[in-house]
Batch of 4 targets.
Target 1
Amino acid sequence: MPAISVEATTFALFGALGDLALRKLFPALYQLDRAGLLNGATRLLALSRDGGESEAHLARIDEALRRYVPPHELDERVLDRFRSRLQYLTMDFRRGEDYQALAERVDPGLPLIAYFATPAAVYGDICRHLAAAGLAERTRVVLEKPIGHDLASSRVVNDAVAEHFPESRIYRIDHYLGKETVQNLIALRFANSLFETQWNQHHISHVEITVAETVGIEGRWGYFDQAGQLRDMIQNHLLQLLCLIAMDPPADLTADSIRDEKVKVLKALAPIPPEKLSQRVVRGQYAAGTVGGKAVPGYLEEENSNAESSTETFVALRAEICNWRWSGVPFYLRTGKRMAQKVSQIVIHFKEPPFYIFAPEQRSLISNRLIIRLQPDEGISLQVMTKEQGLDKGMHLRSGPLQLNFSETYKSVRIPDAYERLLLEVMQGNQNLFVRKDEIEYAWKWCDQLIDGWTRLGDVPKPYPAGSWGPVASIALITRDGRSWYGDL
Ligand code: BG6
């Protein structure tokens, strides 16, 4: 039996036949049901504008579960129970009249969770109509990214939602915050005094955050080409990771204490002026190449592409946080599509010891590194220096890991998908893992100045072959500082 009891809710999913809902949200809800974490009285409403037979739409959801839930986790009894909770309703989200049918299906005694898996341009309309239908009172709204494409447009969306819902009932998703190892960053930093005393410019030389993907655009060219990797990944996921690494200890674990600390980091991020852009930021775009032994097309040759596009699919940059803790410590961020390997990791490089007494030729070995692997093979490894074993080795040093591999150490424990945790947190009314309005805005403000700089300079992304680690310039970005990206093969 699960150790927590979760209150009953009506869960209304707007955009229920979209890719995100079918691939991630329904499987996550199913997993919660399987784990006994959906209250027996919880009802699920699948809302979409697709008309026709409800049965056919419900069958699509069923199909998606069979496709995206691993076969050994499909349990026919749970599937039956899940189906019995689920209803389908055709709605035009922009038409007020359609919300009456929704109101009739919502249990007035239970909180309503309204999850918007739709373009952000309709969030305002949905909120307005929910309120007009008398459904705003006990409702928590969940907003998917991207919220806008710059500061101004994100304000329009946030303000439209705020007209009907207080911040305490708005849940902005950044699915990276639901990942198990990202959660662990808080435990690692603030439950171990060992690290916290070293966590500053006196002891850390630099930090790397890499989120590399092997996938390309996956049929999303229309959306992606308007966004690009900076808006799609840096503005949210990578800046959130940077905040969790760089923030000061919060006073407690409440949502606002954590968010206050994250906002301080975002405020302290130094802008990168146009004259420094070429030295400090590299944009790339993948050309044809080979990924995992398979030939793949370049970005400009993808389905529905526009051969003129100068949208970036890769960004590497050197950020600086101007505060007492981090002054002089570069944060190198890097993310791209169609890269050599799927890996998300954070590497904290500690400074060399203040005085060196070992053989000079081994000097380059000497520095501790903390490697936090978010995916795949979730785990944490601390590279420490030891002496090589053997009578003939003298004081010959080697760097080896003190390792915590979550998948091996906790073999029998399943690592939940980020969306399972996030949906559970919404059902529990807990905002810790969601992004506050000011966080989004400071993140946009910082990204906007980069985009403005590129536009002013007429910057064109540098090509890189699919299956590589990005443009050569991204290697130069870090080698200029006498360093290299950790672990590139
Ligand atoms: C999404 C981006 O937010 O995150 C996608 O829009 C990206 O472009 C995805 O592929 C990566 O998520 P994950 O969990 O696979 O690292």
Note: The chain has a mean pLDDT of 93.
Target 2
Amino acid sequence: MAITLPDGFLSYCKEWETRIGAFIEFKDEPEGPEAGDLSPDLPPIPPETAPLRGLPCAVKDNIAVKGFSLSCGSKLLEKLRSPYTATAVRRLEAAGAVVIGKTNMDEFGMGSSTDSSGIKRTNNPWDQSRVAGGSSGGSASAVAAGIVPFALGSDTGGSVRQPASFCGTVGLKPTYGAVSRYGLVAYASSLETIGVLADTVSRCRRVFAAIRGKDPRDETTREPPPGSPPLYGAARSKGRVIGVLSPEAVARAIAAAAQEASGVDALQTAAQAAVLEDEVAQAFRAAQDRLADMGYTLVDVEIPSLKYGVPAYYTIATAEASANLARFDGVRYGKRPDWAENPDDLIDKTREAGFGPEVKLRILLGTFVLRSGFQDRYYLRAQRIRSGIRRNFEELLGGMDYNGPPPPCDGILLPVFPTRAFGRGETGLSPFAQKAADLYTCCANLAGLPALSFPAELVGGLPVGVQLLGRAFSEATLLDIAEAYEAKYPIPHPAGYRPFWS
Ligand code: GLN
């Protein structure tokens, strides 16, 4: 099932790719799945996804596509080829889309810039001296450059939404359990979901409609609860009341917590990292004004537990990562050393040479928070904070039961990341500041809720996204609001962009 690529498309891709380095693997003649691979065990794909037929798409290199690389951005898995295809991708293929390549990422999804990739460097299409964001930076830059109309990424703490904001694309992190994780190489299983990066909101909706649904291969998946807003059709809910989270109040709360624990320098850095860059603050205000003009009612909301979100996120994510990454031992997968003294030495040498510094740091952190006798102090406490965050959101947005009284808000507006795409070296953000800056994204993962990042404005030549976070299985509401915004404020494109797929 080969697709016909438009004239001039391949040279357009080559030109962009030398500048942005989005792909780990790219097929000039994409073929799609063999007929036998489109087995009939898949539930029917909704008819609204028909326009996806014949479109090329890109897939982050931690999501399995048969015959393609599955490096996870790691040297350790650089030579691995996937023997099978993830459910989300099979569903896209059943809808007629064709995978054209695998995209670069921070190693195992750990990072916010894609600079932690062990394979190559990815640049931002708007300014090649800046990062594309991460960890799904390759997918975001490929979409922003117009190489593909959409791509899959994965989001554990912001890895779809943050690069979407940096590159000026739409980025959806679905409700936990809405999309099968079968075929996604696990980083932190209780937090992560496969997500969508797309050039427009309507395309994002279509891709989400194709990939979501219960999958017997992932027991955490489920169908949307009765009464939840449908993605298509007349009964589409129109969100009306948008809660606005004040970034100033969040930054103040973190600064106050840092003050209490005076003497811990890292907390001061964390407090600074939470403050929005002027350009981001400006775009966030503009988005509020515009939504108000469009007729939405904006109300101020608070999420008191948010100030503890980042420490809770990094405790849980690293704990799960240390367990999930234990399988990469050079025995069953991975690049082995030429020679080892004994099996233990084989494992040590494989992991020492194969994992990059960020991954090693997180494995150490994870084993530290899980070590015997200390689980109460770190891991269980983080789980309590996680429950608190979920409760705070539920009070504002409602829970899974759609038959109760309407909740106070239809969605919550918040920034995606405190900065626009940052540079490297002196002009960059330290790895610690990057982690601290995950506060606006990681809360949706901790609570298992859907969140959508969409381009709000171009400030100083760089895109800035804003984020809408919603009740479980209310993706349709978030997409409706963003689609109305996009209709009035169209998504801009970087210089040199050609609309091959519109
Ligand atoms: N920046 C976050 C981290 O490094 C997000 C990662 C992700 O969502 N995969 O963990």
Note: The domain at 9-223+481-488 is CATH 3.90.1300.10 (Amidase signature (AS) enzymes).
Target 3
Amino acid sequence: MNEYDYIVVGSGIGGLYTALLAREQGSVLVITKGSIDDCNTKYAQGGIAAAIGKDDSTQLHIQDTINAGAGLSNEETVNILAKEASARIADLVYFRVPFDTIDGEIALTMEAAHSVPRVLHAGGDATGEQIESALSKKVRDSGIQVLENFLATEILVEKRKVAGIKAIDRRTGTEEEFQCRFLILATGGAGQLFKYNTNSDVATGDGIALAFNAGAEITDMEFFQFHPTALRMPGVPPFLISEAVRGEGGMLRNAEGLRFMFNYHEKEDLAPRDIVARSILNEMKKAGSDRVYLDVTHLPPHTITTRFPQIYRFCLDRGLDITKAQIPVAPAAHYMIGGVRTNSWGETNIMGLFAAGEVACTGVHGANRLASNSLLEAIVFSRRIIERTKNKVKEKVAKEENIKDIQVSLSQRPIPKILPTPGLAVLQQLHWDKAGIIRDKDGLNQAAGILAGWQNALPRPTDQPSYELHNLILTGRLLTEAACIREESRGAHFRSDFPQNVPKWKCHIVWQK
Ligand code: SIN
């Protein structure tokens, strides 16, 4: 009864797109812990990158991606990403994603660290929502079986090969087993590690914990990208204010109303994300304020309301008319760059286990993700997963990268004598304070010690909140331990005690149980 060719865990862009392609090859089950639309994809605003503009080229996209990646991008997967981009955009158009157009041509916007406007968008700033709703409609219409409210709890592995997955029905608490030939993790990221984040509530590191516990390799976890501009208003969740707002002319101002980014980088407001985030923190610290401001009041009101309808409406509903007043913003955790390590076919080190989207680490982002490359990564490598399974290739794919690995495993740590009571709010504050935008050895050691203590102290999980807490603790432990090991600053990982980039750290930290 419960046997499938493919089981996909997660229902964001990676999960739904994979499911639609897998359906051509065999039976498919999608398991998702909330409703089909609960995912991070829906929150993506800016868009999806592809070198389709007349002043652009695949080579330039490759170069920008590698430059952003600060020495750790996998050149093979970056090449694949950029080369296959336009064909995958055509697939989305076929699936009826309504990309915005100008005079009949797909409209392209600018985002930080891109050399040219390269970012496609839909519904103005509702790109993720438009993609999600087009794909979820297609999945529903195609009759693919979707189990909503099922939380995956354990990957079943027999003789080093995937056999299936266990999941609990959130409504009844009963556990079920599902068998499959191919299991695709598309569970998204782990933004809920941090007090301030732009992610959905479902982003709790579930796929990292499932894969790690099954024996998969997890890599690059120290690289977590912080978005410079999330709305910072008392009592309001940190809603994303897209980088495209700066791409269209929005300007950052400090508490005194002065522009400041030219003091930090030649590209000013469109400097790389990590630099903008740290510059904002510095301005906030100097002014003793918890925010800076993003000013779009000089843009025509019609441009704001049509180009950024979601942001405009969200702010207006909270009493802020952004055509007239500056937007209070501060950085927030945004994207998990590391993840379950895959090769260029989305394949992990466990036969039959694949990962797609934010949970995967294909190596394209290196140490710092180029904006709007992640929706693209999800569809490019999802298709390759299906190609790989279709051809039923049995042999392992050689590792093409020439960047060396440091293989590590979690070991015992001194546990602090006084351990705070484990809970989501404490965990989020801990990561924000000790493993956030600026880190150091003492803070990281403290955080890792507490997380290790919680791992020892907590009873076995039984329901969704307890599973999610366990998953966040394990994911946070891998992140903080890796950040502790990496004694340098590179890309999204900044250590105040090791502020320089160090050539010997041009390597991946790879976890395995
Ligand atoms: C944004 O709209 O600023 C987010 C784009 C991204 O993170 O890729």
Note: The pocket of succinic acid is lined by residues 45-46, 242-244, 334-335, 371-372, 374 (CB under 6 Å).
Target 4
Amino acid sequence: MKKTWLFLVICLTSYVALGQTVRERINFDDDWYFAYGHPFDKTKDYHTGTSYFTYLAKARYGADGAAAADFDHRAWRPVNLPHDWAVEVPFDAKASHSHGYKAVGPGFPETSVGWYRKIFFIDSTQLGHQIFLDFDGVSRDSKVWVNGHYLGNEPSGYQSFSYNISDIINYGADNVVAVRADVSMEEGWYYEGAGIYRHVWLRTTPALHIPKDGLFVHSEVTDSHAQVFIETEVDNKGDAEQHFSVRHRVLDAAGNMVVQSADETAALLPMDNALLKTRVQVEAPQLWGLDTPYMYQLVTEIWADGQLIDQYQTSFGIRTIYFDADKGFFLNGKHAKLKGTNNHQDHAGVGCAMPDELIRWRLQQLKNMGSNAIRSSHNPPTPELLDLCDEMGILVINENRLMGTTNKALYELERLIKRDRNHPSVIVWSIGNEEWGIEWNEIGARMTQTMQNFARRVDPTRPVNVAISGGWGQGSSTTVEIMGYNYLVHGDTDEHHKNFPHQPSIGTEEGSTFATRGVYFEDNERQYKVAYDVKPRPGWFTIQEGWKHYAERDYLSGMFIWTGFDYRGESTPYTWPSVTSYFGMMDVCGFPKDNVFYLKSWWQDEPVLHLLPHWNWQGKEGDTIDVWVYSNCQELELLLNEQSLGTKTMPLNGHLSWKVPYAPGTIKAIGYNNGEHVLTKAHTSTGAPQQINLKAHQTVLKEQNDLAVITVEVHDEKGLHVPTANNLIEFEIDGPGKIIGLGNGNPTSHEKEVFIDNYQQIELPETSLYSLTDAKLARQLTVLDKKEQKYIKQLEAEKALVTEFVLAEMPNENQIYTWYYIHVGQKQRVYLNGHLLSAQLSANDKHASFVIDNSLLKKGTNHVLLITQPFEPQNEWDKPNRKAGVIQVITESELPNRQLFNGLAQVLVQSTGEPGQITLKAKSEGLQEGAICLDVVP
Ligand code: GAL
């Protein structure tokens, strides 16, 4: 206690001495501007890269078009991150099957390049610090400029990357960052989104500092204590040699100090860096586990001349992991079967741009199913997902994107490992998935060995895995440390285990079964698969068969189902019009399909009883309905309208089924253990929909970017949920919240997922220059009223600049036209279709804007006339501006709406930054309105 107090005093003193915090990390997600560019039509890409000297030729000087510091982006659409523009575009039969038929990517150049720009102020007191822009991930092939300086290119949509911008900042002034993302070529074979779909951060450190991902903490645990090993990189980006010491404190979850390291001292020349290694001992450590995900904090400080220079915080967990070739996986010495799912990173309504709370919500749905692990197939996840897995006690197979052993490819793997190695949730590095060109041959064997050696050097604490779909017994599978079986249909795991008795293994993919939520009769015309657990193809395995195989073999560490959630793309076994996969245990909204309850029955200990299908089969009276029960109760009795249809014993890891002739009423299952009633589940045939009902996963939201996942359903007059309802529902929202996306889990739905105002730009063509007496100008001048004509006649130094633009239609009342003007000369007199918009705009007013009264605009040609003393070139190479800016057209969106699919839809509501109350109302013809209130608190 005393020690903590003392430490606080020291800290405060040093902060006061410095007069500012030593390091800062500020979220950089808000206040960006977005517009489409073009992959090859330079005129549609703001002419970027077309100058005589390009941005690759000259630093800063060469930045042109939308990359230039002074480019005017006011007409672009304001957006906050994370942002995925692919969700905003329509579905299109000609678009990519694997990416969910969104009109982006190959064949859609108009929507395949996105530009983002943001203006930010950096205080003059920051001079001397190191300033970085950290991107969690941009899809994809991003290029970044700050103040016109080209910073670099990141081809992958999944790697986090960072740029040091310290030298090029305008201190005490505005700065501008421009990002160009290009998705015209695909990286994965699944929906990947488009744009800055993960967070961006502005990080400020002292010149002498611990670089990003520059600290590695890991531990060895004995019965009574843990040795905590700490490796710290220090960079000196200052101009002088630095002598300093590094000190670490371990804090417990309540913030109390547990142990402090001895000081390590070192010296660094400018631009040099050092790696310091030390260790501390934590007595009686609280271990990180699935039920008790206990996290420690490591506070690392750099001190020089009695001053605190840098302070770096690392969350970490103390735990042991071990894979045994015969007995499977052990966490903290205790056996834990991996009950996992594979997942991509998109969700209904928002695509890949998932708010953190949505990631948490999805992980919670997986946990609710009894799952304890995920595989981030097939790419590095967003870092926030790993923070949540640490916090929630979920194990992670963390996957690299592309196999390779060049320096560049190994560097990609190194970046992933260094970024994520302090997360206790991460238990395995997966270096590859189904690398069909190599997995079965000796190239695969060699590459696996090389990457594995490399991974071990960067992180000696975790094993390496490859997910292999063929050639078991050859190629990669002969050298990989942990064998990854992708699908039992591809070989014999017992045989492989016999031949490689010292190799641990995991079922990295199993399942790939097809199911549509709420569908119980296959309908190939509408492209719906049944939700019963049936074989996806002859010879393949059901979820139950897959799990039984893995559950019955100790040497298999566990199984990862393909997939936890449906995702966009890969709508196998169908193509268009299906746009999402059918593999998920849950649909794209996270609504459970029935398989969830099979797994829940055998993946966790709480009693489970689930009955399928629903009991609304009007028109099928007398027909046989397959009734299934998922449960972990010992005995199950089924009753139709209180008549028993028999009692059956539940087989281990199995399910029960009855053939029942349909009669309306109530179908009921009762579960017993040792003859005692445990659970009852019933479905009753419902009446017609009557009332809309809204439920939120949380009704109190934090102010900034918090989220409510809202389920929309309809009830009949008795209040029963109608599982077959498909009403179209319209939504209205009030208060400090917005609807960021809608979905319903229907794999063939092409409804809009986001309802946003449409932004278009009409770039005004270059003006023609006339003297005021030029005959060609006469017509333009005669449309002005007499007073204006008289005024212009007496001008001497002025000239006329003239241009025109065409409107295909008259503006309508939902449209707002704003002219974002850029100055062209001194004392500008601005006319649109003969109407004076500004009498004397000064040249200093570089960026004026005019909201145009719609009645001034015409269908067809509209005339722009500027009377001014135009800017003249001062040098031979000067090109004075002759373009008078851009007209922005905003077309307001209609109200958001969505159809229910088999009784359900989902609305995602996000808080927008102020406290207050959000009200969401839902209406549909013939139904009673539904409403929900959410409190937004500071
Ligand atoms: C696997 C592959 C996954 C997904 C799945 C669909 O072979 O690893 O990414 O494509 O098939 O069944």
Note: The chain has six domains: 9-18+210-317, 24-205, 321-603, 617-684, 691-756+894-937, 760-891.
